[in-house]
Each structure stands twice: as C-alpha cells, then as structure tokens.
Amino acid sequence: MQELDALQNSITLLIDDLRKTLDSSDYSYLLQSIIESNRQDLELDFEVLPLISIFRTSLNLNKTPTDNYAEVLQSSLKNLRDKTPCHKIQGILSLFAKLKFQLQLPFDDSKIELADGEEILWTSYGIANCTRVLRKLLFDGQIILTNYRLIFLEGCTDVFLDQSTQENASLWSKKYHIIPLGQIMHFTKMNDSKMVSKVKRVLLITRDVRILKLGFISGSHRRKEMFIKLREYFSNMPRSLFCWSAKDPSAYVKLLHTTNRDMVSRSVLFEHKQSLLDGWTFYDVDKEFERMGVSKDNQWTCTMTNDGYKLCPTYPKQLWVPAGCTAELLMSASAFRSRNRLPALVYYHKSSKSVIMRSSQPAVGISRRRSREDELLLTKIQEANPITQELVIFDARPKVNAVANKAIGYGYEDVQNYGGCKLVFCDIENIHTIRNSLIKLYDAILDEESSRHNLSVQNSAWVSHQYQLFSSAVKIAKTVALKNQSVLVHCSDGWDRTTQLVSLTSIMLDPYYRTLNGFVVLIEKDWISFGHQFSLRHGYDGSSSSERAPIFQQFIETVWQTLHLFPKHFEFNENFLIFLLDQIYSCYFGTFLYNSQKERVEAKLSQQTLSLWDVILFKPYRSRYINRSYVPYNSILIPNINENIFVLWDNYYFRYTKN
C-alpha cells in the first residue's frame, strides 16, 4: 500500500507537469479509448486502473505544448519507474508513448547534426516498429526526411524498455535509425486496424535488409506527404541524389562520427582536413599498366583510337592492344562485337607475359558470320605470348544461353575460324537469375519462421552463384599463371559477368590488388573505366527494374568469401567491403554514378561531386579498414575448394539483428 501511495503521488506530480506542456483537447476520451483497447493485452489489474483513472479525469488541459515536453515526460517517467515494480508500470508507460504519439508534438531540430549540403525537407511525429530488432515493441519519436536520408529519432523509448531489450535496440545505433534514401529498396502503404487510433503505416525495406514500419495518426495526411516526398526523390534520379549537394568529404567523416562512436576524433579530422587526397585522380592508368610491366613489353601498345569514345563509347580512352594493330583494324574488329566492345588488355602477368583480355560476344548469328579483322586481332593476341600461343576463350555464360543469342545476331566464337583458340563455358547465370536469387535470399532472411530459414537461404542459391563465379575465376587464374596461356573473357555485352571474372582473377594473381590501395585501383580499372553500368544496375537513372541486378554486390561478397578463406592475405578487412556496399547505395559520393567514363566526363562528375576514395584514403579514417592480422603474401592465391566451404555473409546480412 505504501508503494501504491508513492506511485499515486508520482503520477499526480506528472499530471502537474503535463498541465504546463500539453495543448487543449479532450484527452480524457482519448486516454479512455487507449486504456479500454489495451486493458487485456497490458494485463492492467485493479491496482493500476485507478491510477489510470487519475489521468482520464485530470487531462482537461488548455496550455500550449513547449519544446521541453520530451524531457519533462522522460524525467517524470523515470521517477515513476523507480517507485513501482516493473511489471505493473510497464503498461502505464506504454500508454504514455501512445498518448505522446497522438499529441503530434513539435520537433526540435537541434538534436540532428546534418551533413554539409543536407537539408531537412519534412518532419512528422510518429511511431516505428523495427521488425528485425524488436518484433513486439513500438518506438515513438520524430521522423525526419532530408535530401540525403530518412532519420527516425527515438523519443522516450529507453524509459520503458528493459535492459535486455535496450541491448538489442542498441544495434540500431541507439536513438538514431538512419537510412540513406538510396538504401530504400521498397516502400508501400499499409493499414493496421488493430491499433486504437487506426494508425496509417508505411513499410520500408532496405537493401541492407532492414524493415522499418512508420506509423502516422489517421487523418493527419502525414503518410501521404511522406509518400509524395519519396516518390519525388526516386522519380527525379539521378539529379535528386545527394551527391550533387555534398561538398566536403571531411564533413562525411564528421557525420559518421556523430553516429558511430569508434570514428576518429573531430580534432584529428580538422587537423588533417587539408591532407585529403583527390580521389578522382588517384587512379592513374599509365602508372597502373606500367606497374604491371606491359609498358616495357614491345608486343603491346597503348592506343588512343578511342579518344573521343568514337571506337567504343563504354570503354576508356586508352586501350592496350597488340602492337601493330592499326586504327582501321580496331574499328572493324569492334564493329563485330556487341556494343563495339572489342578485345582489350586488362591484366598483364609479368612472370609469364600472358594476359587477360576482355570483350563482348561476337556478332556470329545464325548465319555464322565471320570477321577477318576480329580473327586477326585474336591471332595477334596469341602471337604476343612468347611461351604458348594457344588462346583460351572463357565465355562466362551457360552454353545454352550463348547458343540462344545467335537468334538475335550474336553468339560465340567458332573455334574452327579462330585458329589456336579453345572455348570454355563458365555456366554463370545472367542478371535476371542473380536478381531473383537475391530477392529469394531477402525473403528468407525476413521470414519470421526461423524453422524455414536455413532451407530458404539454401534454396535462394545466392551462395551457390558466388561459388560458381569464384570457381570460374580459379580456372582462369590457373590458365594464366600455371599454364602460361593468355585468355579472353566475355559474356554477352561484357560489362557484368566479364567484369566480375577479370577482377576476381586479378586478385588471385596479383598481391597488389589484395591491398587497400590496389583494390581501389582494381575497381577503378575494371569496373568504372571499362563501363560496368552502375546507374542502370542500381536504378540511379530511373531505369526499368528488369535491368537492375546486384552484380557489384555479388562481386564484393565473393571477394569476402576469398578474404574469409585467407584472412591474413588481405590488407583490408570486411568492414571495408561492407562500407563499399553501403556507399553504393548511400549516393553521398559520385564515384559510382553513370554507366561509363564517357557519361561521367560529359556530366563533369569530378567537378560537381565528391569521390568515395577521398574518405577511404584519408589516413585517420582508413585505419578502420586495415586488417591487423595482415601478412603480405607476394605470390598467386589459387585455392582448391568445394562449394560447402562457402557461407552466407552473416556480418553483412544480420548486422541489424541480434540473431
């Protein structure tokens, strides 16, 4: 009885505080309806109900709310909790959160530290359910939409969570739930008639496998307003992307510091601000091919035939080709390849002088067309190898797909017309299969029925596709390093599976690409310069969803599988790979915008946006991505493995959930 009196006194004091802060309305009816609808679920007993009655009869208020309402409520509730058993007060505190949501209190934007160039576009009070972290509890708080991200700022949630739940909630960086707009994969409206206020909800699913359900009070039009803002953002890509507004790379590190406690200190940040490198000029094509050693081999030459991108609009300006290839030969050979993507050198193996060439499929067709210039170009590639002149063509596709492409005028090389060539199919599936595989994986991860989880993940075949990619790269690496044979790698258009294969093979063959700087160079060389369609594959240009595919994500995950197998032989750690994937979708930087070097030059991207490498190569920050167990291994890295060793990347897919 003494505890009950103390609780009643605390509630009375709280009512006095609420009188000073809340707007006038018939809150007694509102509270009554909340109580009645939740009585059974909250197990309110006869001792608690009379105290609730005090609120019902006392909340006849006519004062204007003030900005310190949240602090007043939080302080009062903490006092309340200290004076009563947790199981009795839990229901009352849940009611407070719901009441606060109904009141639509004003927002104090001083709590949010914005990035340089970031602007608040819209705010609303609401509730959120973080499904993969807390399946049963609701957070109340402020929803903030900026030109860069969606922020949910928790209200007094930590008051009514027990200790174990607080530990779980901390996985969302506690207080802040931050989702860059580019991370939003799917958003839709949903209604929940079970809630007393008939809350109108928005369901958000992100690319990093988070679910956030945001709730707005019925009749407020806030959900409609949010939907309009999100649709404007996605319909105006790429001009709506935040990279056009971001101005200072050091501000990004500062922004991360405000939400991640292990970031560099601000004093270090500003002290080294002037030491930031220019990420746009970090990759030097001349220096990289000189490092490989190809510039000293007179069998190869750097041609500027693609200056102005007239030879191939999705290739870089500078191309390495066999010496003696005239501009006319290259023009005719490119015309015989899909998208004009003729065979070009991307890796030179110094010890054997064998090379990796890349291209697209030939325009053979049903009529079995031939190109003397294309055949001559491949002959010159063979002749440039002093050890063996057999050229192995690795077609990344399943043979049935390559045969089907003959119907649309393309296909694969007829080795009878290409003397000294051998053809190998790698059986790697196309973008549609890979996209559907990832969708199935997401469905499996988000499935709340844990008993089906492992089987569903296996049925998605996401890890199996990585193994197929990896095992094909192993075959190519063995051909180049152990058999001293040059190879030509292509798929259909030569910008998806081809890029994956030549990059993975280069990592196995060259220890430089297993360093942080070298990996950045590899991405610039094989992915950005040679025209992987980042905007098309990630939907930055508003393209059809049928053309979107997680090709770069699949590559990064396969690199992680390699790092997982050889944890001491990579200078960078998995935090670096996770950060790369996050930045693909954050749209803070312009590095992965557009589909080719030509498009980036025309858009003056380097003059108008920041480079991701500005941050990654920033010395005080890059230490976060260094593998402390790194032992340089200055040799080829060609493993013999089976598919059972490949696993799902838990630290990426489950970083926002306890299990």
Describe this structure as you would to a colleague.
The chain is α+β, with helices and mostly antiparallel strands. The chain folds into 3 domains: 2-103, no CATH class; 109-235, Pleckstrin-homology domain (PH domain)/Phosphotyrosine-binding domain (PTB) (PH-domain like, Roll), CATH 2.30.29; 279-653, no CATH class. The protein has 26 helices and 14 strands. It has helices spanning 2-21, 27-42, 49-58, 69-82, 86-103, 163-169, 222-235, 249-259, 266-271, 285-292, 327-335, 372-383, 399-404, 431-446, 453-460, 462-481, 497-509, 516-529, 534-538, 551-565, 574-586, 597-602, 605-608, 613-616, 619-622, 650-653; strands at 120-130, 139-146, 149-154, 176-180, 184-191, 200-206, 211-216, 300-303, 319-322, 344-349, 354-359, 391-395, 421-425, 486-490. Helix 2 runs antiparallel to helix 3 (49-58). The two termini are 42 Å apart. Mean pLDDT is 79; it is low at 1-12, 17-74, 87-91, 132-137, 156-174 and 257-274.
Protein traits:
659 residues, alpha+beta, PH-domain like, 3 domains, 7-stranded antiparallel beta sheet, 5-stranded mixed beta sheet, 26 helices, 14 strands, 42% helix, globular, disordered N terminus
Mean model confidence by pLDDT: 79
Helical segment count: 26
Note the beta-strand portion: 5-15%
Distance between the termini: 42 Å
Number of domains: 3
Would you count the extended β strands for me? 14
Percent of residues in helical segments? 40-55%
**Poorly predicted segments:** 1-12, 17-74, 87-91, 132-137, 156-174, 257-274
Largest sheet: 7 strands, antiparallel
Major sheet strand order = 4-3-2-1-7-6-5
Rg, alpha carbons: 30 Å
Q: What would you call the structural class? A: alpha+beta
> Please, what is the oligomeric state?
single chain
Tell me the overall shape.
Answer: globular
